[in-house]
């Protein structure tokens, strides 16, 4: 026999759930009970009307809406608007992502612990609390700036910037830049915190200064990942840029908002198809570029 | 003294790609810049400065009156409820379609080779189901949840329900895609072993498959739930319930201190959800 379990152990071959259950029945029941309670609570709170949705009337309502979407409006005016909206959306996502990368790149080095005050680069430095506080200040500042940027959702940033600079695509760029800047800052920071310490150590042992270590030991390691994360966020941002117009920040969203509000369903379908194409194109472009980088 | 390992040296390739890329990048940059009408000086002009000042001073102190905060409890809870139900519907949509969109479950692989060898018609039928499932998933996730929400508001009326449906459909598409990737990565050997003992497909599914995919499955679903909380918090901007609606109202009334309060609530809510989800994932 090659490798099979001995005959007598076969009856105890575990039923998959057994192993989990071995940890204690009570715990599992408790988790299940909490989950069910959560679902029931959410079900009641979110005013779901499944009966209405599945009834002839409710289902018919949705079907009627879908029917009204067809056929897509392919008149020259709509196509022109869709194309313009698509280019504008692309521009918003492109500039927004660039701005985000610039924010993240300029803040992240201050916001990473191993570059600012602890770890390899600082172990030889005599412990002096005044110097350490001086180093901690920019760290805390940059970190909290990135956190604030990240916490506020893009849409809320868009609302704020529409108030600050007026309607149009420009507040959309600022909104994307602000939120994504925070997100990229966090992602970049994670990359920085687990750089391979060996090149850093060898550079240090040759007497390189900290700036030299940054340029020759750390940046070459992290830049490809930085670019790859930026491209990934660009894919996310093209989707967001397509809806920022709902709050007045330009792009396809603005036109979708108008089309939905004026019950121009056929035009809406054209715009949705445009989003679909735009998103797919950007996804492929970004995937291609990422392959080139890494 | 020429150092051999200047980082940029090794990456120089003899191809036109860098030049083409730079060219397109610059064209896109210049065109976008002009199209968008970037005007960074706007914050320093009198009007921009005035708005900025009004906004910043309006935010502090955050609205902490008892009335306002107790008014926010209901929308905050509603946001959580929308996210939970939305994620549940997303799983209900994503799981079956994700299975159909898995190549080694619906088209080829150990499970189907006995069925499909020597029968191109059957293979074609299965392949078309697979392609259809993938197309549906791609459609669901390519339309942003915001657009879904707006359409559902039109179809079923205002309130949290369209928000649930929007998250369910958009996240169903994302979950379905990731599920199919998880499913495609299963180790086929247990399946083969089970099949050789004569287990039927359902048995193979429950004993060979599910145990392999469950941990990844649960942890990705939880991750999506975290995203759903953030998403449902802003879906209210188009009338789909939750905190978003309140943010928009306060913003339109220029009550920036209320906006700040809501954002603080949102921050703690998201942090709590992230914490719970991380804890559960750590247990798995």
Task: Please give a quick description of this structure.
The complex is a heterodimer of chains A (294) and B (284). Chain A has 13 helices and no strands. With 294 residues, chain A is mostly helical.
Structure explained in plain terms:
The complex is a heterodimer of chains A (294) and B (284). By secondary structure, chain A is an all-alpha fold. Chain A has 2 domains: 15-69, no CATH class; 76-293, MetI-like (MetI-like fold, Orthogonal Bundle). Helices cover 76% and strands 0% of the residues of chain A. The longest helix of chain A is centred in the N-terminal third of the chain and has 33 residues, at 76-108. Chain A is globular, with a radius of gyration of 27 Å. The two termini of chain A are 47 Å apart. The longest helix of chain B is centred in the N-terminal third of the chain and has 35 residues, at 66-100. With 284 residues, chain B is mainly α. Chain B has a single domain (72-283), classed as MetI-like (MetI-like fold), CATH 1.10.3720.10. In chain B, helix 3 crosses helix 13, helix 10 runs antiparallel to helix 11 and helix 11 runs parallel beside helix 12. Residues 1-7 of chain B have low confidence and may be disordered. The chains are: A mainly alpha (294), B mainly alpha (284). Chains A and B meet through helix 2, helix 4, helix 5, helix 8 and helix 9 of A and helix 2, helix 3, helix 4, helix 7 and helix 8 of B.
Label this structure with key terms.
heterodimer; A: 294 residues; mainly alpha; MetI-like fold; 2 domains; globular; disordered N terminus; B: 284 residues; 13 helices; 0% strand
Number of helices of chain B: 13
**Total E-strand runs of chain B:** 0
By CATH, the topology of chain B is: MetI-like fold
Q: What is the count of β-strands of chain A?
A: 0
Q: How many domains of chain B? A: 1
Could you tell me the mean pLDDT of chain B? 81
What would CATH call the homologous superfamily of the largest domain in chain A? MetI-like
Structural class of chain B: mainly alpha
Structural class of chain A: mainly alpha
Distance between the termini of chain B: 55 Å
- Classified by CATH, the class of the largest domain in chain A is Mainly Alpha
Q: Which CATH architecture of chain B? A: Orthogonal Bundle
| Rg over alpha carbons of chain B | 26 Å
| Largest sheet composition of chain B | none
């Amino acid at each position: 026999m090659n490798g099979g379990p001995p005959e007598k152990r076969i009856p105890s071959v575990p039923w998959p759930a057994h192993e989990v259950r071995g940890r204690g029945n009570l715990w599992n029941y408790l988790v299940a009970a909490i989950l069910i309670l959560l679902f029931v609570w959410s079900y009641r709170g979110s005013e779901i009307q499944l009966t209405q949705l599945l009834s002839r009337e409710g289902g018919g309502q949705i079907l009627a809406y879908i029917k009204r979407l067809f056929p897509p409006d392919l008149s020259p005016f709509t196509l022109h608007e869709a194309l313009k909206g698509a280019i504008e959306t692309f521009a918003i996502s492109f500039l927004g992502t660039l701005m985000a990368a610039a924010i993240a790149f300029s803040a992240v080095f201050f916001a990473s612990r191993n570059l600012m005050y602890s770890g390899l680069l600082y172990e030889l430095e005599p412990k002096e609390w005044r110097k350490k506080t001086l180093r901690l200040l920019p760290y805390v500042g940059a970190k909290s700036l990135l956190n604030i940027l990240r916490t506020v959702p893009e849409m809320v940033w868009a609302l704020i910037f529409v108030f600050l600079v007026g309607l149009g695509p420009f507040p959309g760029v600022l909104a994307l830049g602000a939120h994504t800047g925070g997100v990229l800052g966090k992602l970049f920071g994670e990359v920085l915190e687990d750089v391979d310490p060996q090149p850093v150590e060898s550079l240090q042992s040759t007497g390189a200064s900290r700036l030299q270590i940054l340029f020759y030991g750390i940046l070459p390691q992290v830049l490809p990942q930085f670019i790859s994360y930026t491209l990934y966020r660009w894919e996310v941002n093209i989707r967001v840029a397509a809806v920022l117009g709902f709050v007045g920040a330009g792009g396809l969203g603005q036109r979708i908002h108008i089309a939905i509000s004026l019950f121009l369903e056929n035009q809406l379908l054209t715009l949705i198809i445009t989003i679909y194409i735009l998103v797919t194109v950007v996804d492929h472009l970004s995937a291609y570029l990422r392959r080139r980088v890494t | 003294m020429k150092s051999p390992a200047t980082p940029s040296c090794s990456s120089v390739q003899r191809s036109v790609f860098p030049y083409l890329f730079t060219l397109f990048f610059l064209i896109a940059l210049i065109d976008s810049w002009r199209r968008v009408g970037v005007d960074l000086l706007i914050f320093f002009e009198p009007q921009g400065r005035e708005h900025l000042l009004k906004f910043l001073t309006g935010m502090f102190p955050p609205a902490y009156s008892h009335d306002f905060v107790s008014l926010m409890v209901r929308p905050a809870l509603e946001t959580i409820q929308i996210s939970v139900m939305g994620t549940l519907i997303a799983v209900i949509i994503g799981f079956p379609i994700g299975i159909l969109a898995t190549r080694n479950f619906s088209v080829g692989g150990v499970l189907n080779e006995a069925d499909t060898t020597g029968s191109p018609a059957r293979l074609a039928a299965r392949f078309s189901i697979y392609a259809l499932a993938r197309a549906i998933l791609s459609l669901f996730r390519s339309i942003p949840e915001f657009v879904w929400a707006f359409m559902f508001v039109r179809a079923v009326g205002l309130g949290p329900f369209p928000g649930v449906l929007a998250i369910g459909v958009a996240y169903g598409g994302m979950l379905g895609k990731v599920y199919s990737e998880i499913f495609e990565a299963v180790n086929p050997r247990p399946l083969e072993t089970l099949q050789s003992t004569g287990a039927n497909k359902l048995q193979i599914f429950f004993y060979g498959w599910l145990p392999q995919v469950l941990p990844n499955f649960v942890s990705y679903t939880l991750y999506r739930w975290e995203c759903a909380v953030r998403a449902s918090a802003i879906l209210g901007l188009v009338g789909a319930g939750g905190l978003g609606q309140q943010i928009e109202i306060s913003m339109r009334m220029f009550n920036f201190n209320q906006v700040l309060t809501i954002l603080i609530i949102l921050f703690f809510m998201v942090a709590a959800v992230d914490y719970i989800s991380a804890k559960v994932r750590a247990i798995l």
